[in-house]
Specification:
Elements lengths: L2 H7 L7 H11 L6 E6 L10 H13 L4 E5 L21 H7 L15 H6 L6 E2 L7 E5 L2 H5 L13 H7 L3 E5 L8 H8 L7 E10 L2 E10 L6 H10 L6 E5 L2 E7 H15 L2
Parallel strand pairs: 1-2, 1-5
Antiparallel strand pairs: 2-4, 3-4, 5-9, 6-7, 8-9
């Protein structure tokens, strides 16, 4: 959203880092927590300092013995045969596969997930997992546990940062964002059984011993198309420990990642028929 539209839609006072800290604490985000954050910056109002203020507020509330994680996905490093937004001519596909620079956790930008994760991946002491499509970044005490050993195959399943966050009993914070961006539901796709789940072959450029390679690997046809419906059903289940409130001007939700994934496994089994 253009900044002028944010100012027009949120004409009240600017949202300061101190306001964000207070609102996050009131929502229930506690020091020492492990939290996976999805944020829509424009929903929070006009934030003084933009994504820098948002990340600093989260770090201030969590403190150094907490852990902050965000998705830092780079879908542009995928197989051009699958591109739809926009598609490219078929005669380009092989050239792209042969020449696209490999994923570099220090350099490769995020794509389509907002300004806050893009800033976060570049900040001091932030670590990033190594996956050309769906990396995650983390800061804090458990950052190494979150991002290490991200499997190239079945990339949002058992060998992913999502599984590590599940094991760490992390929380999910939707900071002005909706359930359509709730990546933890993807872990449930791998764990659930449903008729429409298929195995696919994906590809991307990676570095192997200092050399660029186009690598193909198996995965499933994961999709977030029904995550809004899934999220509404999860809210209606009245899960224990869920908190809803305003952070800045944005409607925000804090909940257990483990509980949400377990619910999603059951929901997907019933609804993806």
């Amino acid at each position: 959203m253009p900044e002028s539209d944010v100012v027009r839609e949120h004409p009240g006072a600017p949202i300061t880092k101190e306001r964000l800290e207070s609102d996050l604490a009131a929502l229930g985000l506690a020091p020492g927590s492990v939290v996976l954050v999805h944020t829509r910056l424009s929903a929070l109002g006009w934030v003084c300092g933009g994504p820098v203020a948002v990340v600093h507020a989260l770090q201030s509330v969590l403190r150094t013995y907490g852990t902050l994680a965000m998705p830092t996905h780079s879908g542009g490093l995928s197989d051009p045969e699958l591109w739809e937004n926009p598609p490219v001519p078929k005669e380009w596909w092989q050239t792209i596969r042969d020449t696209m620079p490999p994923f570099d956790p220090d350099v490769t930008p995020t794509r389509g997930i907002g300004a806050t994760p893009e800033l976060f991946r570049t900040m001091p002491n932030v670590l990033r997992s190594i996956h050309p499509h769906v990396s995650f970044a983390a800061w804090g005490e458990k950052a190494v546990e979150v991002v290490s050993d991200h499997s190239l195959e079945f990339c949002l399943g058992e060998g992913s940062p999502l599984a590590s966050l599940y094991d760490l009993d992390a929380r999910v914070l939707l900071l002005g964002a909706g359930f359509a961006s709730c990546t933890c539901f993807h872990l449930a796709e791998y764990r659930a059984e449903y008729r429409t789940k298929d195995r696919v072959i994906l590809g991307g450029p990676i570095a192997v011993d200092g050399h660029r390679r186009w690598k193909t690997f198996p995965d499933i046809n994961y999709s977030s198309d029904d995550f809004d419906d899934l999220g509404r059903a999860y809210l209606k289940s009245n899960p224990a420990g869920l908190a809803e409130g305003k952070v800045g001007e944005g409607d925000s939700i804090l909940f257990s990642l483990r509980d949400a994934v377990d619910f999603a496994v059951r929901w997907l089994h019933r609804h993806r028929t």
